[in-house]
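We both want to read discrete structure tokens more fluently, so let's practise on a single case. Would you supply a protein for us yourself, any chain you care to pick? Would you write everything just below, so we can both look at the same thing?
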Amino acid sequence: SAWGANFTSPGKGARAAPTLQRRTNGDAVEASPQTPSGPMFTSSKMSEASRRPHRTLAMRERAAERNGARRVVVDSRRRDLSDHLPVPGEPPAFPFESGGSYVGEWRRDRKEGFGKQTWSDGRLYEGEWRDGKRHGKGSLWTRSGGKLVKNYAGDWDRGRKSGLGVQRYANGDAYEGEYAAGERHGTGSMRYADGGTYEGGWARNKRSGLGVYEAANGDRFEGHWCDGVKEGPGRYFYASTGKIYEGEWVDGAPRCGSFRDATPEEANGTLPSADEQFSLPALSLLEPEALLAKRVAELRQLRANATEDVVRAFSEDELAVLRHVFTLEDKQKAGLVPAVRVGYLLERCRLPVDAVSVERLLGELGADDDTRVTLAEFVDMAALLMSA
């Protein structure tokens, strides 16, 4: 018949029997030979797929990763359509909106290298990235009044400000200095919008340690701070009177100290005119230096009790013994005793302090035969030796 074909299995070395295809006019023509074990027909797509190298799932995932420079990657987020009412005849609202964009370098689907990120609220960051977070040098802008304003420029560590940086705040303040874990921490200076300035130590976004604050009216404080307020020894210069208060501060307020006229150097050229000067009333305290030293010692011990530092804090009875021994040695009632007598006085107080430790402490303090110490200093030295 016209559809016949020889499908007998050929012997070894024999030619495979041809297949026959029928034309529309009924004639039979010879087509390419087919072996009995192979398919009766093949697909070009199947043959191309069979020639491709096999790729595992991990290989395909690596091939799909974003690596190197990418022009724009847009983040999308779902819109809140709870209050949206459909309008008849119009298509439904699109359920997604743009959440921001990133232009820059990638490594294994994470931002890595240099890039620019824009958020939907108008913020913009341009700088270095690592592992998908701001890391290295970079600048952050925020939108204010329809304009981009540089908010921070400096160092970043795993998405937070860390290192040296400059920041400008919305209220007009400006800070330049050290950061740690996203907070002002270390040494830095602040220019306030009201004209005041501060330069010194910071801890957790608050003034801490030794620092100098100068108000817009010329007043100036030089001394110690804790948790944002004056705490410890310090001096305050009053520009309107040319006077200086020097003494101990507790929770931002002066507790014990003395007033005196400021020298031209201390006033830094801002002393008022002579007609603005006034005289303070004369004081007539009994043993004023001893009284002042006693109060300073009490305040410092109260502060030692309130802090977590490993410093010996004396009880009221222990303070009374230290004060009694100090007073017996202070025969001139001046509130001062020789530094070389500290070891002897501590022995009289029956404190377990050895002479070698006392000599070492006096050497570290640079004390000599002419050095005199107050009661507060004597108590501080005893606390240090007991804490060693």
In short: The two ends are 115 Å apart (CA to CA).
